[in-house]
Amino acid sequence: MSDQPVRADGAALRNGVLTYRDGLRHAKPDATVTMSKATLDRISLRQITLSDAVRTGEIKVEGDGRNLTELMGFITTFDPSFNIVTPIAKH
Length: 91
Known about the structure:
It comes from Cupriavidus necator. The protein is of the alpha+beta class and 91 residues long.
């Protein structure tokens, strides 16, 4: 995150599992992605698309950007206003 304290975090996708590593930087990453927390929030809330954020410079990608696009394609989308608690149905 470009607006957070400097640190290196890594993620790896293996066998269908995305593993996040706090404070760990891979020796040879396929891609390095830099963005602000606000940009990540806007993407999560579907206020901006990943491709638009890259195009406008809100996201900087070093390396093979196709890997980021492929990774984002694996992530499940959901309705952000889903009910966390639902009422008990009356019979």
